[in-house]
Amino acid sequence: MGIQDTSWNSMKTFLSKRGVKEDIRCFEVRNITRENRESVETLLIEKKDSFLAKTAKRASVAAAPLAAWVTANVKYSQVLEKIKPLEREQANLLRNLKTAENKIGELSTGLKTVDKTVEDLKKRLNLFTKEAAEIEIHLNKAQETIHAAESLVFKLDEEYSRWKHQLNELSKELKILPQNSILASAFVTYLSSCSQDIRRSMVIEWTKLIGLEEFTLMNFLGSERQQLTWQTQGLPSEKLLMENALIIETLSGMDSENSFCPLLMDPSSCATEWMKNYLSGHNVEVTSQTSSKFNTSLDLAIRFGKVLVVQDVDYIDPVLFTILRGDTNQLDVKSSFRLFLTTRNIQADIESHISAVISKINFTTTEAGLAQQLVQCALKLEKPELEIRQQDLLRREEELKLSLDQLQQNVLQQLASSEGDILQNKELLRSLNETKQSSSDISESLAESSKLKANLITECGMYQPLAEYASKLYFSVGNLSKINNMYQISIPTILKLFQKTLSSCSNVDVITKKQKFLQAVYLYFARSVYKSDRLILALHLVHNSFSNLFKEKEWDLLIGHVITEDKANINQIKKDIPSWISYDRSYDVYLLQNTLPELYNQLYLEKEDIWQQFPQKPVPMNLTSFQHVLLVQALCPDLLHSALTDFALQNLGLLVLSPPPLKLSQLLSESSVSEPILIITSPGSDPSEELRNLAKNLKVKYNEVSLGEGQELFALQLFVEAGTQGNWLCLKNLHLMISWLPTLEKELQNLEAHPSFKLWLTTEPNDKFPSMLASCCLRVVYEAPQGVKRNLRQTYNSWEMYKEINKSLFILAWFHAIVQERRIYIPQGWTKAYEFNDSDLAAAVQVLLTRLNKDGKNIRWDFIQGLCESAIYGARVENSYDLKVISSYLRLYFTDSVLSGKQFLTHSVVIPSTNDFKEHIKTIERLPEIDLPEFFGLSPNIDKIWQRNRSKEIIHYLKDLSYTDHKYTKFDRSEWHVQLSPLLNLWKKLNQTTGYIKMKVPVVNEILPPISIFFSREFSFGVFLIQAIHNDLANISRVIKGSLLPDKDIIEFATLLMQLKTPDKWLKLWQGSTNPSLYIQSVMSKVEAMDKYKDHINTTLNLSDVFHSDIFFSALKQQSSRDMKIPVNDLVLSCNWGDCHTTKSVFTLKGIQLEGAIFDGENIVLNHENVSDFITAPLLTISWVSKTSSIVTENILTLPLYSSAERNVFVTELNASCKNNEHDKLIMAGAAFYIQS
């Protein structure tokens, strides 16, 4: 139309002209020149998409018909050009016809000639008409071709979009292929043995270093199809396990000479079971290193190219060294040979040179993985149809994706193999149409599958909270192995408890199910831990189950994981808190105030009348149950154990911590043939008799073996025999044969046992007991009965074959019960847990019966007392004051007056009047179930002392349980800064006004008097200790600032400090507090005190100010010896309580506390129930005097002085007066002095 500009702006100008419609409507196609048409055809080819209807519509509604109009005119112009010669010819013919007609009249005479001419013209007209019809046919064919092309483009449009997207993704991946390859190789090489948390953190760190936004091993090396395949083979879909499977497949696909042998660290055996399915299509042989056919299996696998799976690899057999190193030139190794190693022991002993040529793959169960298993367990139990649908859905989804992938491959193959004009290939077009239809159907099916999958996830999600809760509890219980290596847990056990809980409460809400499961877990494991550890178990479970019960820092305050940056001056602290709070409670209240200021301000502690009867009477404050516990800890630690017990029971929903009574017969229904019953015993307990009776009642053949050196082969022989014949076997005292237990475990794994076979194991706790063996057993604790009454019952049960029992044996049984049950009150009862047991009782019975036979009625009690004190019970005692307790008991019980009934055995307990066995039993049954302190001769307030000490132990264990194994093992500068800054700042404040850090360690003048030398050495030692502490803390500070690289020693040192544990390095220098904050404050306080003493010796000394109090007494003794010119061995210590002398070689001591007794004026007397668990002793004036000048009276009582309330370090003996008849009573009460901390 005369416009050469084809731009859109020009087009818009043209369309906006007046009359443009008429111009278009009246456009004469014949006016199109050849050059113009060719120009437009070129434009149509170059901008093909722009002339498509759907493209043109997006630009303008008017543009679409105009585009079609242009296309039609171009086609019409092409047709006109083809028929133009015919038109010219036709025009000529018409002209000739007209001329002929004009001549008709003129040539009428030549009619025949005209007819002939007309006939010729008709023939020519028919010819022209035929040519026009052929042109029309060609035009229709062209239209059909165009339609086919349009259809083909439409059909391939979706594939084109998909391929284009894939091409873009491939292009992006190609650019970062080198970086991804580096990360993948590093992942497979270095991270296969790591946990999921470490993998995640290392990948994040590596991606930052290498300049990538993210990296996922599964996306780079794996595919969704592989993951679906592994899931159908039985591998849970947890990310860690999927990555491990990919690593195994990667290593399997490498040349055997260039790849590392995989070692699967698989405690739960789930990976081993998956491996068997994964390798099912190969020639696989499964064996173990302990198998007698191991070498043969290895040889055949190498020669014939088998896949060899070696199970339970706790160590690497030397025969494998050559294969693992790749030195196989001398071996006939077939290329298809593959070696896989598996172990359930994550602590397997792999030598370093072998670790370098194997690839450890960590299949340790994670919380997420276990939660998924628990969800599947719940589905199987409550909604098995959901699990079937889920598996079918996974299978169908995999098949659909594979089909879609195959269809795409077919499309590409058909297009690539097509010959000739693709638009004329009707077979190809038909095949493409069918493929497109199939692809659409599959896409719709996948979309439907995704919806079904989402619905399934929603339905399964109802079990997810409970499964995650159960998984968390599993790992919480697993941490108890830090307390006792025997406290192990297995996944089958938690699955069994989970199933049992769901079965028993199917129609309740999730919260109720959680509570029921928590109770089930506690009651099950409470029977497999010692009674003394049940409260620890309960509190640990409550803490991990109910995080909402604890506000920020409250739990840390309970376990002592808090530190204040302020220098704690006890005198200043005492001024800042209410005056009614005792001196020994000041620091704990100070910690409460600094750690939880908001809570402290709500307490109104200055109002003494509110708190006078706390905790017996509740205070009018809105406190949580745990805040009440914290207040008891701060104000009344002698009642803390009761408060902790009440708190645990309240949140567990139980009445008592003790599980229901358990008989060994109940365990039979709970255990399987492959699950041994492990009985963890305590000193003095032995389940052998109960086992024998159980086997006898069930008429089962029963054998038992007490293990010891040389019993291995005999025990294995009986084991195999019992396993194959279905007998019972009891292997006793496993703790004596720890090195043999891995062999027993392997034999147990390989045994094909008879259904009636039952293996019983007994052991005492041992830190080296194999955890795998403990976890695969059904464990119960078998403790000696607690309480004097239960102890006597057990003793008389062993004597039940006698109808008569001599009355003196009742005294002996009573004595045996007392010395055993007194172990509950360590360190007041005994300073350590002595292993008094049934063999001691048997020996004493033999001695007693021998004397009865020889002496008749005139029993030589001194003989019996001497043997029991020196050879039987006393032989186990290490502390001389504990031996005095035994001696006091023997003098009290083994007398004629007790035997005749004239004197009480103890507190209204009289021995039976006859030798009748039943009479003895009646006497025992009249005893109270709960022991009275008077039974042991202990002070009435011993329960307060016991609660205080036991609470300390419980808190110590809870503190250990609060630390995760991996939290501090890696250097994290920000974490170190947060955790260690308070301690570093405290140390800085402590040294602000002193010059000890830079001071040269003073040299002691050895010519000074001994006492001066002592104080000088104490100060010199203190300065040395301060500088040693400073060097260690300075190194940590430099590491945090980045000026020093951390090494292994620094990391271990800092880890202990972050856990608020005093490092062993410091404790070896001086045995102070195990809390590093208190340790450094104590060191600084002592050094400052010694700094004053070294130059100006003050005869009033606080013993808590010296490092080595025992040396002080020795130095003073040497000083006195010189002053008095008397040999050291001729001096004795003179103690005057309350007196104050200032003569030479005399010191007045303070800082001494008394436990188990009180001062009544000048005498030490038994205390009563309402007094504190300890008192501060009066000032003590001591001096060393000559033995000849000292006055010895019967009223003098010698008691030990210990360095602390734990009574683990003896300092010296102190004398004090007592009443005539209370000497032995005070000894039995466990009275002792200790230095105030």
UniProtKB/TrEMBL annotation:
Q: Which Pfam families match?
A: AAA_9, AAA_lid_11, Dynein_C, Dynein_heavy, MT
Keywords from the UniProt entry: Coiled coil
Q: Which residues form the Dynein heavy chain region D6 P-loop domain?
A: 674-780
An example Gene Ontology molecular-function term = dynein intermediate chain binding
Q: Where is the Dynein heavy chain ATP-binding dynein motor region domain?
A: 229-442
- Say yes or no: keyword Transcription present: no
The name this protein goes by in its record: Cytoplasmic dynein 2 heavy chain 1
* Organism from which the protein derives: Clastoptera arizonana (Arizona spittle bug)
Question: Lineage of this protein's species?
Answer: Eukaryota, Metazoa, Ecdysozoa, Arthropoda, Hexapoda
